[in-house]
Design a protein that fits this description.
Layout (H helix, E strand, L loop, with lengths): L1 H26 L21 E7 L12 H6 L8 E3 L5 E3 L2 E8 L2 E6 L13 H14 L15 E8 L2 E6 L40 E6 L3 E6 L14 E7 L2 H9 L5 E4 L5 H4 L4 E16 L9 H8 L4 H8 L4 E3 L21 H10 L3 E2 L4 E5 L2 E4 L2 E6 L3 H17 L3 E6 L1 H10 L4 E7 L7 H4 L10 H10 L5 H18 L2 E14 L2 E2 L17 E2 L1
Helix pairs in contact: 6-8, 7-9, 12-13
Length: 533
Amino acid sequence: MKSGIFKYIFVIFVIILIIVTCVKFLNSKEEVSEESLDQTSKSTVIQTDLRLAIAEFDTLNPILSNNKNVQEISKIIYEPLVTLDSELKIQNCLAKEIAKKDDNTYIIKLKENIFWQDGNKFTAQDVQFTIDTIKNLKSLGVSSRYESNLEAVVHLDVIDNYTLSISLDRRVPFFEYYLTFPIMSKSYFENEDFLNSSKTGMAIGTGAFSIDSIDNNIIKLIRNDDYWNKDKIPMVKEVYINLYNNIGDVYEDFKNGNLDVLNVSTIDVDKYIGTLGHTKVEYKTRFYDFISFNTQSTVFSDSQVRKALSLVVDKSAMVVASLGPGYTASNFSLDMGSFLYSDMLNVATNTDLAKQILINDGWEYKNNSWSKLVGGKVQTLNFNLIVNNNNDLRKSVAQNLKDQFANFGIQVNIQEVDSNRYIDILNTKNYDVIIAGLECGYSPNLETFFGDNNLANYTNEEIKNILVEVSNTTDENTLKEKYKRIYEIYLEEAPYFGLYRETDYLIYNQSLVGSLKPNVFNIYQNIEKWYRQ
């Protein structure tokens, strides 16, 4: 009898427990297992949306847009043949395999079970349509940011629905890195004007989110629950992209807690949004400035002089004194998160070693000046430094370099020239030393610095042979070994030395949780793990 009563009480207890659990579930925003959450939080209650921003919106079509925010956000809607991971390594995306048939020909196999967000299958015809569209835009007077990716492409053959061949008009080192442009659906744009169709701003993709609606003030994205990459399905269900006339309005809304993430290059952003309630993650950009020696000039044909001078400059002190926030000392073009960058390039300032190198090379330090007897004549170690006069940052850096070299006994004459003259000097290489800069490519190609007709007039046959070798391999260990040898030669002969590069900030509200690790290619790395509390 008592056992029956106990059973009855137990059943009632279980029923009450189930009811309470269901009520709690219905009242919560969304319940997820703790194991699926990023370890930065132990909360199991999450908001199901993210809130982003675009200032000065043009179009959400990434092929046509010139808006930086659009290009960033488009990566969660549209996908390329290959993408780049946190170390700028190639990762297959829509492509299953890429094989190099010869120097100018690539065979691309596509993944076969990928669908557009309207249910149609993704095929090689979509890739062909996208490439043809990008290349044809120029003839229509429209410039696409992906035009340069395809300028070497002269022919494309569709072999079957999931195989195509791309032919180039020249050898392009690491061509796979140029296949990072977004692929668009051919069937979606069938019989449509790509430039002027009302559909172009609502184009479908293959990515983790699709466009649900666009009005004057907001774009709504919804999670693609049928996304082919099951490991990358986001935790949040919606992304709301608020549209603003200017960046000032963006800052104000972020400060008021209405936005979750901003990507900014403004060094004094704290002046606009304050310092409380958010976190900043700084990351290196592609904009890199460096010193180039003319290795064919009288003094700088001597590699020991170049090496000594590269050891004189305190780059960190230069950045603090001349540039400030938004910049960081940088030693090489790949110093932006590339897996092929090496710590061996992080050579510290060493004026004692620099002095010893010059002394061993026959130079004499006397009366705060360096000189050497060459061909019966006394040669003084002084030089002209070229800088363009419309770049205030470089002019400030030039003055700092002048002061640092003066402390070492080298007199520097800064020559400020206008933009046209500066470009002419670069092209003719009519200089001793120049401050130059470039927007680095995503690929680890170093031919700009060491290939034919490089800026420093520098020739090293071993490096040139290595550059050919590395363009024919994708093996990571082989690449690291070859690049290590390039760095050894570079540090010994010093045709250039790095100065600094720009940095940007990913700023996020403290209610946002997840693994936020932006890089120069994709600020939304790991977005599938982001959520709001």
